């Protein structure tokens, strides 16, 4: 059981339904439902009596609600107390990176920190963007490279780059040698989709592009991560729409072709909690050479 399970549970109680709670949390309802099932499995009790229109707390859920609120409040106090005690002695930095995203500048920044701030100990973690945003909010991660969304509201953000969508194809595909391809020419190809809960910004960008073109695609496969998608491209001859940063990560047998149509852009940004002022974090941000902006500001 993690603190976010308690936050999700409380959000459902306050919202009255899973649907409204998912909207408030800026997450997918199936993902929220799974988190609550995991919590109930851990507790070995049912927390809600579910119906098609609303949810109602069970007796166990009513008792658990008060305790959950108390635990969250105590956890926040503990975190703040510990971080204040650490103060200027905090030299450990945990950085989250999007799965499969190539960050060439990260290497140079790490090398710079080794010279300018040799006491900093750096840990790297790889997650999906929604997971990384949760971990930054909960301050399990000091800084993360994410796809900004409504979920990241309240965090400090710094844009790293803007990316267009490209089509990843098998090397032997008839369009693989072209410089550009129209998406309509691929409408009968087997496409690979990424679940919304893992990549909501990418899914929204793809759907916006399809609406603007008046197209529908043949969604034949679903891959939970980019590595799985690459495998399907090679083994099943499928195609996939991906941000252009993945071009540098394509394995042998997979190529990327630009879209002939105007593509929506996806932002990649650094994100960190406004309450986190550790010397290690500030040194890392400074190494990128740009000021922070609030999450409600436009890039």
> How many H/I helices?
9
Secondary-structure element string: HHHEEHEHEHEEEEHEHEEEHE
Global Rg:
22 Å
Shape: flat
Distance between the termini: 36 Å
Helix content: 40-55%
Subunit arrangement of the protein: single chain
The figure for the number of domains is: 3
What structural class do helix, strand and pairing data support? alpha/beta
* CATH level-two architecture of the largest domain: 3-Layer(aba) Sandwich
Main sheet?
9 strands, mixed
* CATH fold type of the largest domain: D-Maltodextrin-Binding Protein, domain 2
Strand content: 15-25%
Regarding CATH, which class of the largest domain? Alpha Beta
What does this structure look like?
- This protein is an alpha/beta fold.
- The protein folds into 3 domains: 3-85, Arc Repressor Mutant, subunit A, CATH 1.10.10.10; 89-160 and 268-294, 3-Layer(aba) Sandwich (D-Maltodextrin-Binding Protein, domain 2), CATH 3.40.190; 164-266, 3-Layer(aba) Sandwich (D-Maltodextrin-Binding Protein, domain 2).
- It has helices at residues 3-15, 18-25, 29-43, 59-86, 104-116, 129-137, 200-213, 226-236, 279-288, and strands at residues 48-50, 55-57, 92-98, 121-127, 143-146, 156-170, 180-181, 190-193, 218-222, 240-243, 254-259, 265-272, 293-294.
- Strands 3, 4, 5, 6, 7, 10, 11, 12 and 13 form a 9-stranded mixed β-sheet that branches. Strands 1-2 form a two-stranded antiparallel ribbon. It has a two-stranded parallel ribbon with strand order 8-9.
- A hairpin with a 4-residue loop joins strand 1 and strand 2.
